[in-house]
What we know:
heterodimer; A: alpha/beta; seven-stranded parallel β-sheet; globular; B: alpha/beta; five-stranded parallel β-sheet; 5 helices
Amino acid sequence: MPKSAPTQQLIDGLLEGDRLALARAISRVEDDAAEAARIVRGVFAQTGRAHLIGVTGSPGTGKSTLVSALAERYRAQELTVGVLAVDPTSPFSGGALLGDRVRMTGHSGDAGVFIRSMATRRGTGGLARASADAMLLLDAGGFDRVIVETVGAGQAEIEIASVADTVVVVEAPGLGDEVQAIKAGLLEIADIFAVNKADRKGAGRTVAALEMMLETGGAAAQAVLHHGQRMEMEAAASETDAEEGWPIPVLETVAVSGGGVDQLRDALERHWAWLEGSGARSAREGRRLGHMLQTLVQAEVLARMERTLLPGLRSDLVEGMMRRQIDPYSAAAEMVKKLSG
Amino acid sequence: MRDDQIRVLIAKPGLDGHDRGAKVIARALRDAGFEVIYTGIRQTPQMIAAAALQEDVDVVGLSILSGAHMTLCPKVVELLHAQGQEDVLVLLGGIIPDEDAAELKAAGVHAVFGPGTSSSEIIAFIRAAMAGG
Lengths: 341, 133
């Protein structure tokens, strides 16, 4: 199949389980927004079956190794696994060094595992679109579990993982205190915590710190005693009612030796069952698709703005701002008014 | 809105673990603006072909210092062709005798780069091949 194969051939191929067609379709959606629209239109009806799992955490926590070990456990149950490993693009050259496969070498020759590396490229909107599209394609390609792995740093990367059905936040001992996790905004999105490299010193303390955080910052408003004073704490996350009632487990794993990975898989399966049973699955899917819609509209509006919105007006407004004749907010309002009018 | 990126797989087939050259090239290609998928050492031709397919790469760069290039390279080319990736550019780096290089080119390896090749030479070769194809 040549690189230039017609779009419909790629769509038909990927729906029939042709892996090269799938791989080429992912490249197309990544490279070309117009092609992405055609391909997603062709496969969307066949999506919504896979369990989408987001895995995120700081660099060096062992996410890739853990994902690989998890894929192995799923394969033992004869479930197929698609993996999307997102790594940053160099802001200097536009190139990227994608090395997650080094930690995922155990699956070659197994058609039931498909691993794809994706660079963040430029612009957060582009990444969100491309990764969401790629996940749809893996879903349509028939994989039972679709795992997206991102570095838990940077808004876009965290967002990508956070729209999954189940979010696993990976921590490791010795990477700094738990305040780092709060700063990064990872606590709010976790459905499951995995403290990886749990054979290392300090793992118990990391687990205890996370458990304490969960007790004090849970989904519902809580009251805690602080120096003997009763303090009301507002809920950090604005979860819908349907999403309450899942006790977030903190698991210990040693991905390199496979320790605790069965428990992680079991927790994922429990969460999947809980999502179905509680109605939270449709709540999350609604949130995910709403997010996708918003991303696409933003991109389209921006593109239209750049295309049609008279570059002249833009430079006039910038000039006005430089002379302090108009402020940035009013200038933006002016441009948006022109766009809608 | 198009954003075509050249994707390159860098792999070290065979049993030698000397991956410094492969890593240097991977880094240089990234700095040249390519997306480089690095797979690490001790890759079998089957592993390399599977990765090349899933990643839909434009280029496969093999680094071999073990002397096993005459068996490994044609095998990689054969597998790529068998899975429908006839259009992938296959490059080889390492210590390769001239007569072997000629034979490998006949077997479908597009270029062989010996010790002392500058990374800019390799980058220029890839750019020219991509522009032509």
